[in-house]
Design goal:
Layout lengths: L1 H9 L10 E4 L6 H17 L7 E5 L5 H14 L4 E4 L5 H10 L4 E5 L8 E8 L7 H17 L14 E2 L2 H11 L2 H4 L6 E4 L9 H7 L4 E4 L16 H4 L3 H7 L3 E5 L6 E5 L4 E2 L1 H13 L8 E4 L5 H9 L3 E4 L3 H9 L4 E4 L3 E4 L8 H15 L3 H12 L3 E8 L2 H12 L5 E2 L2 E7 L4 E5 L4 E6 L5 E8 L2 H19 L1
Parallel strand pairs: 2-3, 2-4, 3-6, 7-8, 7-9, 12-13, 12-14
Antiparallel strand pairs: 1-5, 4-5, 9-10, 10-11, 14-15, 16-21, 17-18, 18-19, 19-20, 20-21
């Protein structure tokens, strides 16, 4: 009894947010607790009058992910709600697309995205096929607490699924065809490398491109629940080791997606890394010019301002949101043309309001095929027209006292000067952001769940960036000593 109480006392409470709930497998992420979350989501759908529609159950390639999804599907079916499962693992954006295509009440996606291998999570995707909004996740969390007080007990484990299965690949590929110039992809020169990092994107992005005539080779495409000993994250650190392979084989580019394929990253043979900060503004210009489309451009408060300059030149609105794709997704649902966030995700009008790493890469290749130039040259031309971007994000891992003191000092900064620079705007949309009169900016954004403060900085030239970074580091060191 004492042992059980000790375990419960250190087990993290279930906090259901935009990205759902994530935890360590077998410690706080267990079969009984996942059923508790599933029941809370079911009750929310009953309250919303949507429980007559089916619920989709999906999973990525993580350890026991399919078993967790199947157990949830069996629970929902036994509770009187029709459940549908995917036959194989699927990317999160594909799951979101299926919600809309199958007119489902929503989906429960079992994924922990780019987190370490020992994590798993549940993400609820509502019927509009994008990230759940705050009022929804708040209500689900309230229902979880109510069930805990009621002493909810999960039924016997049932990890075999014999019910209905969902096949969506052909429909999803047709959706991509409607958003890009698929015939143009056949004109791409050279060969490409796709690193799936053992995630759910394997068999989706590579297969789509191969069917459209692109010579793409797959890397780390098999299921490996340890992800090859690395995070399944398309970061510069994970992509740089592929550069020698690009040189050896003569591949034009390597592109990658994370564990559930909603984020992306790209690296060229020159070793230049391209993330959403670079790709988002380039694709925005492509849509506004070559595609002849129009609409507001959307970015989070922590994302590069290169997008702002594209919006200004083409006379369209620039919308800035808090960090989190739920805000970007809402803007897309309300008519925005394209939106994204620095952490690696974007989507476009006419698609699901959920970040999609597969679409991001396909649209990028559409742009390169249309222009006939390689990515390094395309980005150099873009910067010649819109100005450069030098950007960094620093994650400060602090003690509670250090975090509190640093934020207190930042909050006390006056409205006229900071780090030896004149302030143009102080933005408190999400954290505290100082935009200086020269256009450079710095954002201090505390984590709500960790003892971390994330600091983002950007400037248009190397010298200004180096000076800003040096001043910021001296300020941080002074106030976290």
């Amino acid at each position: 009894m004492c042992v059980k109480q000790c375990i419960i006392s250190v087990m993290k409470p279930i906090e259901f947010g935009t990205d759902g709930w994530r935890g360590v497998i077998s410690f706080d992420f267990t079969f009984p607790r996942t059923v508790l979350v599933v029941e809370a989501v079911r009750r929310h759908l009953v309250e919303a009058g949507k429980a007559e529609r089916p619920m989709l159950l999906a999973h990525d390639n993580r350890f026991l992910a399919r078993e967790f999804a199947a157990n949830a599907a069996n629970y929902l079916q036994a509770s009187g709600m029709r459940a549908l499962m995917f036959k194989h693992s699927v990317p999160t954006p594909v799951c979101a697309f299926a919600v809309r295509a199958r007119e489902a009440a929503g989906a429960l996606m079992f994924t922990a995205s780019h987190n370490p291998y020992y994590y798993l999570g549940i993400k609820f995707i509502p019927d509009f096929a994008g990230p759940a909004e705050a009022e929804t996740t708040k209500r689900i969390t309230e229902l979880i607490r109510e069930l805990e007080r009621e002493g909810f007990t999960a039924p016997e484990l049932a990890t075999n699924w014999d019910g209905d299965l969902v096949a969506i690949k052909d429909d999803y590929f047709r959706q991509l065809d409607s958003l890009v110039n698929a015939p143009a992809l056949r004109t791409l020169h050279g060969e490409y490398l796709y690193a799936a990092f053992h995630g759910a994107g394997a068999g989706w992005l590579d297969e789509y491109l191969q069917q459209r005539g692109v010579k793409v080779h797959s890397h780390s495409a098999s299921r490996d629940v340890l992800f090859g000993g690395h995070l399944p994250d398309p970061s510069p650190e994970n992509l740089l080791p592929l550069v020698p392979l690009l040189e050896e084989k003569g591949y034009e580019l390597a592109f990658a997606t994370d564990g559930d394929a909603d984020r992306f990253g790209v690296i060229s043979r020159s070793g230049t890394y391209y993330g959403c900060n670079q790709i988002l503004p380039m694709l925005a210009e492509f849509l506004l010019t070559v595609k002849g489309l129009s609409g507001p451009l959307v970015r989070t408060v922590a994302t590069s301002h290169q997008l702002d300059r594209v919006a200004a030149k083409h006379g369209v609105a620039l919308l800035e949101t808090p960090v989190g794709f739920k805000y970007v997704g809402k803007a897309l649902r309300e008519g925005a043309l394209i939106g994204g966030e620095e952490s690696g995700g974007l989507s476009v009008a006419g698609h699901v309001p959920e970040k999609d790493g597969i679409l991001s890469i396909v649209l990028l290749l559409d742009m390169l095929a249309t222009s006939g130039v390689n990515l390094d040259d395309a980005y150099a031309s873009f910067c010649a027209e819109y100005g450069e971007s030098h950007f960094v994000r620093i994650d400060l891992r602090l003690t509670m006292e250090q975090k509190a003191h640093l934020l207190e000092v930042v909050a006390a900064v006056g409205a006229s000067e900071f780090l030896g620079r004149d302030i143009a705007v102080v933005n408190t949309t999400d954290g505290t952001k100082f935009v200086f009169t020269g256009g450079e900016w710095i954002l201090f954004r505390p984590s709500g769940t960790e003892l971390v403060v994330r600091v983002y900085m950007e400037a248009r030239d190397k010298r200004t960036f180096a000076e800003l970074k040096s001043s910021a580091e001296a300020f941080i060191n002074e106030h976290t000593a």
